[in-house]
């Protein structure tokens, strides 16, 4: 079990649109990844000053979220 902590940094534009977010699967836009994490891990989010925020997750919690967010080819 890997309890390594991962910080996912989010940066917002002045209009509230996500312009940058770390650990993003390539199939998702920054806004889509933020929306997905907000839906699945809202309790792990911490807003910060200056149009920024972080999701604080463990690697064990993040890996399944990444897998779930990525559509599989049929």
Give an overview of the whole structure.
This protein is an alpha+beta fold and 74 residues long. It has one domain (5-69). 30% of the residues lie in helices and 31% in strands. β1 (5-12) and β2 form a beta hairpin.
Q: Helical content, roughly?
A: 25-40%
The chain-level structural class is alpha+beta
Number of strands: 4
Terminal CA distance:
31 Å
Helix count, DSSP H or I runs of 4 or more residues = 2
Strand residues, percent: 25-35%
**Unreliably modeled segments:** none
* Main beta sheet: 4 strands, antiparallel
Oligomer: single chain
Instruction: Specify the overall morphology.
Output: globular
Overall structural domain count: 1
Q: Give the neighbour order of strands across the main sheet.
A: 2-1-4-3
Radius of gyration: 12 Å
Order of SSEs = EEHEEH
Mean pLDDT: 92
